[in-house]
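Running co-folding for magnesium ion.
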Amino acid sequence: MAMMLSPQQEDTKILFAAIAGRTNAGKSSLLNAIIGEKIASVSPKPQTTRTRITGIRNYDGTQLVFTDTPGLHRAQTRLGNHMMKAAKDAVSDIDCVIFMADCTRPLGDPECAMLDKLAAQGATVLFVYNKIDLLSDKSKLAPMLAETEARWHPYALIPVSVLRNDGVDVLIRELLALAQPGPHYFPDDMMTDQPERVLAAELIREQLLCRLSDEVPHGIAVVTEQFSEREDKALLNISVTIYCERESHKRIIIGKNGSMLKKVASAARTELEQFFRIQVNLQTWVKVKEDWRNREGLIQSFGLFEP
Ligand SMILES: Nc1nc2c(ncn2[C@@H]2O[C@H](COP(=O)(O)OP(=O)(O)OP(=O)(O)O)[C@@H](O)[C@H]2O)c(=O)[nH]1
Ligand SMILES: [Mg+2]
């Protein structure tokens, strides 16, 4: 029997879009720009995003649901394998794929492989060339777009600069046009599926990613141990453990006389206070878990992937 829709539901539309593409292309930056809040960590380092992150934005009666994914790269750890699986799984069973490339870099093999597959499946691909602000010679863009068009025939090809908020509105218009009548999947006041504890941990990991170099930041996991609001005053107590892979990394994270950890915690606290709009008391601990990125039990206990 056909389900009766209430008049309100009849008017609503919905669209599920995955944001895929190479690591560091600016996928999480795009998600944050659309949602208007920092729900996904962003950093100049590759492999920033580790899990799928859902962001929700409503435009009048239309709900757009975005899934940010880990960027495509050659996985070298078990964690990396999980990340690549999450990225590949996210592009099936959705309405369209926002495929994001960095216009200053040629497309790599993993990107071409995903694009070939999406084209073969007849997926609706909105191809977004990001970072056009970095192109000193804009005439380089036209042949790039023509080549992409000829090879994969995407549904739309949109050059943007997320950083300058240039072209994002064009993408939104295309997405709104693709939305189909249907009930909203998430409550209209919901912005993300990320629990507050995870958002807090990710804001701290973002600070570490931005401040540390070489292999140290990639071997970091941040777990929120405590997240509670004081009853007697407007204060949020957050306590996190920063896991790293070696004693030498722990020393770098803590820094001379604790200087690095102090800087990270202070910057993170400012971000957390802005996000949660409340005063934050932040405590940080650093622990070593050797080679955790290759240890399934630890990857799961850090809440990164389900068994
Ligand atoms: N110049 C410029 N930089 C940008 C733009 N968009 C994003 N970035 C920068 O690119 C870097 C990577 O951005 P992210 O949003 O973390 O990239 P990502 O695709 O989510 O990366 P992964 O999570 O590792 O897959 C950051 O330093 C951003 O500030 C843009 O339009 N122009
Ligand atoms: Mg990301």
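Result summary
The pocket of guanosine-5'-triphosphate (ligand 1) is lined by residues 23-29, 42-44, 46-49, 70-71, 130-131, 133-134, 161-163 (CB under 6 Å).
The chain has two domains: 7-181, 196-301.
Job closed.
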